[in-house]
Records
---
Amino acid sequence: MAETPKPSTLRPSTVAVHAGRPPHEPDQPLNVPITLTSTYVAGGDKEYGRYTNDAWVAFEDTLGALEGGKALAFSSGQAATATLLDLVDQDSVVVAGQAYLGTIGQLADRESRGRVKTRLVDVSDTAAVLEAIDEDTALLWLESPTNPGMQVADLPTLIAAAHEVGARVVVDNTFATPILQRPLELGADVVLHSVTKYLAGHSDVVMGALVVSDPALWDVLKGRRDLYGAIPGPFEAWLALRGLRTLPLRIERASASAAELARRLEAHPAVSEVRYPGMGAMLAVVLPTAEQAELLTHSTLLWVHATSLGGVESTFERRRRWSGESPDVPEGLVRVSVGIEDVDDLWSDLLQALDKL
């Protein structure tokens, strides 16, 4: 039987389908089975259900191959974030000011207890970020594009600057996914994903993941996951792996639709601003007032008013409806997650809602 090509020699769309599979041998299943157990017979490498599960390993192997590193699955993106931040003790963290609300919330909580010192920056202002990075910086936390402002960072420059002062760099790659951006190749130390979003892709899983290139750092993070029990269930991991199989196709379709919708939205008189970074399926629309933004999100038939994103269905929401959202985010900003529906159907639905404004 011919040897299966190594993931490093394959293109991402092939890796997404073939990585993390059982061996090609007679009577082997094509998919890793869901193993529902809390306990393993002693004497082997597994021992206990808090340490490993075959479904996690298959998911981790596939995501690691896509990102070019070694992955760890977590019970949620927030659990992965907390595990990373636990490595920082009374040091400075430089973070995107318009980063995900949960990330900012965790940092604020730690700062209130004297655990970290947080410096919020505009990641699109490279000079300002470089000025914020100094000898006290332990961690540079980047999003590109940011959630929800859609700001884009100069990742290679900022990563290099952080490394010059001995800081680690984390890049939240939830929006771009490894199909569009591989931060480890740009020098990042850790890639974070809310697997709930594009990786799983069907709005039916809550899960997170970290990917690293340093085996020693992986061991540290794995040890903390084992200790704290921030683990996904086997069924969630299996669903997330199934979602990964179609990630390249979903990203290709949704990205093409997002680019076209951004073009059409820019021409509509009710829209003050369209923020689209030129890649991916996420964009932001700014309307003149919060009231108009709320009306838009409650006037459609296909578009779903929801706080999550990255599913096969198109969703949107006014982000400042959350009290903890950054005041730098305009009141009328609507974060838009484009799904895989027909782009003309999506536009017709948006158009009739915009025309009401």
Note: The chain has a mean pLDDT of 96.
---
Amino acid sequence: MADEKRIDPATGTEIKHHEWDGIQELDTPLPRWWLWTFYATILFAVGYMIAYPAIPMIDRATGGMLGWSSRGALDRELAARERQIAPIRKAIAETPVTALPGRPELMQQAVEGGRAAFRVHCVQCHGSGAAGSKGYPNLNDDDWLWGGDLAAIEKTITDGVRNPGHDATRQSLMPAFGKDQLLTAAQVDDVVAHVRAISGQDRPGAASRRGDRVFADNCAVCHGPAGKGNRALGAPDLTDAIWLYGGDAGTIRETVWNSRHGVMPRWDDKLDKATIRMLAAYVHSLGGGEGDAGR
């Protein structure tokens, strides 16, 4: 009959009443060790749900009888770490940035702290290696719009560049010579030729010689007669091979025609003094930092 038990003679185990392509299944019981392990995991799961946060609710999970949470554990670890480094941060905040090089151990701690802060706050614009990109300065070279000594870097980080409504911000304004019709299109082309010539990219010619006079009348007041720039005004050196937006003729023409007004955030309203000072120390350490007296 269909409900009659069939026993496998080799193992003495009951044969199940189904078959697939001639293959039959034995009703072999699970090993006791496996069953006890399975029961233990169930008990463990029930205990875990009671002791720890486990059951999702509308805006949070159940708290658990132990009152533990991963967020709380992280907060405690961060608080402990903050207590550990608080004396170092206090010493950095109380030490003038120009005095840090005279305290090598504190300077090194400031550099390492600045390295971490840079990865959080600065890589979005300057890149993970601080090499910058179009419109964002490379912080590894020795070309600085506003100065590359520790004090100048700290000032730039603190007050930013062209932050409206902040009187202490770095501020400069290049006219839009073409858009505002301060120069004709021909004069713009001539001054571009002049800049290309003084930067060593093109040979001097008739256009660059005409542009020399246009430059003297309109640009030298900020960039200097020789185009070497002026850090007090944030005017770049036009004679080197370092360009913030690009040194090809088309890009220079766009700069002269429309001007550039890049903005760097001020950080004094977002970061504490110690963090700003650590960032200044780190940027200064990247390779392009200058002595306190500047170049």
Note: The domain at 185-258 is CATH 1.10.760.10 (Cytochrome Bc1 Complex; Chain D, domain 2).
---
Amino acid sequence: MAKKEIGKQSVEFDCPPLIVGAASVVGEKEEQGPYGEYFDHVIRDPMAGQDTWEEAEERFQQMAAEMAIEKCGLEKKDIRYVVAGDLLGQLIASSFGLMNLDIPIFGVYGACSTMGESLAIGSMLVDGGFADRVVALTSSHFASAEKQFRFPLGYGNQRPKAATWTVTGSGAVVLSSQFDTKKKLEGKTNVQKIVQVRGVTTGKIVDYGVKDSMNMGACMAPAAADVIAANLEDFQRKPEDYDQIITGDLGQVGRQILLDILEAKGYDIASRYMDCGIEIYRGDQNVQSGGSGCGCSAVMLTGYILQKLQKQEWKRVLFVPTGALLSPVSFNEGKSVPGIAHGVILESAEERSEKKS
């Protein structure tokens, strides 16, 4: 078997796993942003008909997973593993939300980088021959995140300029082996334009000593810069080898820090860089520095980025979800907020023919 390790911290897949299904479920504020038309389903009730914010987030995850599986013509019994996580303590949105799927599950935590982590692990499972089909997903909810990490909504605190707004949403993808896709999915009308996961660069925990939990961009930007530079070095590429380099939720503050760090390393990515947190909301939506949360990069991936790749408007993208590794305990004990980011290389692949009548 060919060695898959590339450079110091990357993996290149021999037979790249295919993303054959994807779904995004968002809240009303996300629908009102500039990408509202790209999302699959909008839940306008922030409680999603449930009794608590946490149960609402569970519902978002369940819907995203079920929709992604249904969209590629599969059933729950066809999925070997789920790889999922969220921001809540002990991953309760994933564990309670996905319990009824009755699918073996790996619970993962990478803070807001969790979509990158779940995509990476799911892809390794598929490429390694351990599973033919894997669902990777994550979620976040503004109210459940505020309740756990910051202030109760009724407190009505003012938000500083560097703060970000946690996205209410969930994104899910179905990963399939190329062999399985040819064998089982060929000819289905809803599996026509495929995106493949070409490789992964696993990030390191990077800590610049920032202790401001209201400035997540400054906490995460060094980790994002580290993993982007590692990806370019490991794969011997230049920034222009990617149509877009896309971070998860650095926001306006983190964006400039990222660009400055990479420029100091000799990389200028400004002409092909976008941040999901900056993009997902309009400037007049009172979100300060931008959007954040696990759901931010997840719904932008499943709602917008994959469509650009499917239409072959982009051929190759470096998707870099970003996370801040804090908890209420660590913050209250005066710890700094380390950052983490994971890079996933997404490429447009050949189209599949439509089902003949």
Note: Confidence is low (pLDDT under 50) at residues 188-192, 352-357.
